[in-house]
Every structure is written in C-alpha cells, then in structure tokens.
User: Fold this.
Amino acid sequence: METPTHQVQLPCACANLRRAARAVTQLYDAELRAAGLTLTQFTLLQALDRTGAVTQGRIGALLCMDSTTLTRTLRPLVKNRWIASAQGTDRRERHLQLTARGRKQLKRALPDWERAQSRLRAQLGAAGWNSLQSILTAAAEAAVAA
Assistant:
C-alpha cells in the first residue's frame, strides 16, 4: 500500500476520524504483534486492569464498543484465561475480570504499547499529542451526547 506524505482533508469528520483511527491502529497493532495481541485486545486488558470487575455491558459502554464486536474480541482473551467471564444474576449479563495471567500478559505487552505511544507522540510533538488527547475525548463525549 502506498503511503501518502500528506493526507487530503475529507469534508466528513467521521471519515477523517476513522481514517486516523485505522492508521493509528495499524501502528499499535504492528508494535503489539510480538506480544500476540491486537490493540483492541490490549485496550480491553488495560481497561479491566483499571476498572476491576465489571459487567460486559459497562465495559462496552466505557469503550463505545457494540456487543457483537466486544463478544468477538473477548473470546480469545477468555480462552487464553487472561479474562475471567462469569454469568450474572440475569442470564444475559456477563461479569468480566482481569486474571493474574491477564495481568502478566498486559505487563508483557506494555513496552510494545509504550513504543507505539512514543512513536506517535514523537511525530505529533508534545502540543499536538496533548491536543489530540483532548480533542478525541471531547469528540467521543459529543458523539455520545448528540
């Protein structure tokens, strides 16, 4: 795939955001490949490490992930016993928790993730990095509220 040196700004905020998300995801996935994780899987491990035990619905809402994508992403993490999944009082409800093995895997992948973070931060510069973090958080909140 040819890598353009300058991206054309598209008239659609969503198209620009999705293009940026794909490019950034490719960067992180390339770094995390050595740890046997995708960025989405790493993010789930990281989120569960921060939230502790939580329902699948709650983690999906936190990450703005639809139920089907979340279930598909969780499957290999549960299979590898990095995440424990237990049925709640309602049969449709699942409780998720990071396991000791999952914490080890997260720790193992952390240097790869940090390398991706550093590479992107170096390209954006400190001001660009901080601005990106603020804008992305605000965009997610605005889209949820809209």
In short: The chain has a mean pLDDT of 92. The domain at 13-145 is CATH 1.10.10.10 (Arc Repressor Mutant, subunit A).
